[in-house]
Amino acid sequence: MPETAAIEVQGLGKRYQRPRPLRELLRGAPVPAPVQALQDISLRVGQGEVLGLLGANGAGKTTLINILCTLLAPSEGSARIGGHDVQQAPQQARAQVGLVTSNERSFYWRLSGRQNLRFFAELYRVPPREIEPRIDEFVQALGLAEFADRRFDGYSTGIRQRFAFARALLHHPRILFMDEPTKGLDPNASAQLLAVIRERIVAVWRPTIVLTSHNLSEIERLCERVAIVDHGRLLRIGTIGELARSIRSHQAYLLRLARVDAALLAWLRSWLGTERVRPLPPDDEQPGQALELGLAQGGPTLTELLSALIHRGQQILRCEPVDVSLEEVFRQTVREAAPPLPTDAARLKVAA
Ligand SMILES: Nc1ncnc2c1ncn2[C@@H]1O[C@H](COP(=O)(O)OP(=O)(O)OP(=O)(O)O)[C@@H](O)[C@H]1O
């Protein structure tokens, strides 16, 4: 029998009604069109998988997470969390999830971290006998022991965020949603929090994780698959390698050669295709000249290319693959999905 997916989303959509100021309501102004925050989203996240959700501001990431955490109702479609439908069985679905957001404000600032965790554990109906052992478990795991009995308002933002993780884990959820968990942290605190997540949460409990972040290197370091969302639509989902292959059909290599002249460039271009041969700007600190060369499937292999170059008397100083960055994948995916800009002719037609 196939394993139940941790998250299964089918044709999910969400429209927000724009708020109408009373003044406009009284004037009888026309009802503004609703905001289509999500449109026909379908995806599946396996148990224990770490998925990164990438999208520009307003793309719909928080809306999707809030629906999956049962905090918002979808306008259409369905979502199941650990097999429980978020609308038909919200309590069972909610019991499976923990949520960590940025700018956490719901802790009690005059209480200590430990007292806060005790309060939320009761709220989440953690069995009374298990409350103290679980608090100790997460305080230890997240490196919070020395802070737990101090007042919350004295903590740094990084420590507050670790308490937010401890709170999200108290009821032992199998699925953890992290909506920009490092937003507002300095680079050191971000790196420390990320290390804690990776070494003490992901490696130990193996929960399913959905992470949103505008910091692409965080997504690259933590996530197995990435979903790119834009204007409420899911544009692509896959491993970074799969997404890279979907935007670039060739493998690029950086080659540094002792001597590059016009004849060599012309020969390479006739062999590999003009657009796959790119001389890089000279670097005074490096000998020779660097080229970026793209090898397409079905074309010459790297071994063939190198032996042909050696055969032509070239001295190869360096050769390494150039991987597509997640940033490049993201930008290109969103660019390809954008509606074409109106041409001048179309603009003139509209104006007329
Ligand atoms: N309560 C609301 N009422 C009306 N529109 C909303 C509401 N919440 C979000 N929106 C709109 O829905 C769209 C998606 O917003 P959402 O917050 O989900 O995006 P996001 O990808 O999380 O953005 P960010 O990266 O800035 O957090 C945006 O156009 C936003 O303005």
Automatic annotation (TrEMBL):
Keyword Transport assigned: yes
Sorted UniProt keywords: ATP-binding, Cell membrane, Membrane, Nodulation, Nucleotide-binding, Transport
Molecular function per GO: ATP binding
PROSITE patterns tied to this protein: ABC_TRANSPORTER_2
Entry annotated with the keyword Ion transport: no
ABC transporter domain span: 7-256
InterPro entries for the chain: AAA+_ATPase, ABC_transporter-like_ATP-bd, ABC_transporter_ATP-binding, P-loop_NTPase
Recorded family membership: Belongs to the ABC transporter superfamily.
Protein name: ABC transporter ATP-binding protein
Organism of origin: Aquincola tertiaricarbonis
Lineage: Bacteria, Pseudomonadati, Pseudomonadota, Betaproteobacteria, Burkholderiales
